[in-house]
């Protein structure tokens, strides 16, 4: 988690910081083979050099970025979980619970779908 310490320290709201840290810790424990890193000033996880999932913090939500393919694949489940989404982001409001089951599915999907990917982003 040391890689994310500076990012987390910059989150002014203690509840937002704690929630973000909770999610990042959960991923590092659940997916120990993923590489945590900061890129574009945001925490993310990669696998064999390819992007798997990333996060950003906004005033009203924690944004989860599983790439367009992840949003498209899980669109119905994202809505069923009570989250809004854009083409690239799942928006988890700060007062909403994190659906870790859905997060796990998105990460698993990206790891499998990008197993042979040799680029950072999907083409």
From TrEMBL:
Lineage top rank: taxon: Bacteria
YdhG-like domain boundaries: 16-110
State a single Pfam family of this protein. DUF1801
- Enumerate the InterPro entries for this protein: YdhG-like
Q: Under which name does UniProt file this protein?
A: Iron chaperone
> Species name for this entry?
Paenisporosarcina macmurdoensis
